[in-house]
Sequence to fold (125 residues):
Amino acid sequence: MLIDDGSDIRVFRLEADGEPISTPDDASDLVGAAWSHQANLVVVPVERLDPEFFRLSTGIAGEIAQKLVNYRLRLAVVGDISEHVAESNALRDFVWESNHGDQIWFMADEQALAERLALRAARSA
Fold:
C-alpha cells in the first residue's frame, strides 16, 4: 500500500500478513516494491520480520537495513519490540541510535510513526 502525504516522503507499507522478511533477497524484494511505487520509506510491521532479525548477532537486521539504506530507502519497523529490547542491550542501543537518525526507525505503533513523519515534514517546511 502506498501513502503520499504531500511531503517529500512517499510511504510503501507492508501488510502485517504475509511471508516473513528474513534474508537479503527479501530486502531486495522490498527495494523493488518500493521503487515500483516510487516510495522512499518502507514500513514493515513487526509481525513480518523473522524473530532472528532482533538477534543482532545473526546479522539479519544489519543486512536488511543496509540493503535498504544502500538504495536510499528509509525503513520504519512498526510494532511492539519491547520483549526483544529487554533481552538485548545491543538491540536497545541499535534502536536508540536508529531512532535518532533519519534512515531507520523503530516505532511502537502507527500513531508514533505518523507523529514522526509530521515532525519531519514540519522541520523541512
Summary: Residues 110-124 form the longest helix (15 residues). Confidence is low (pLDDT under 50) at residues 1-6. The longest strand covers residues 41-45.
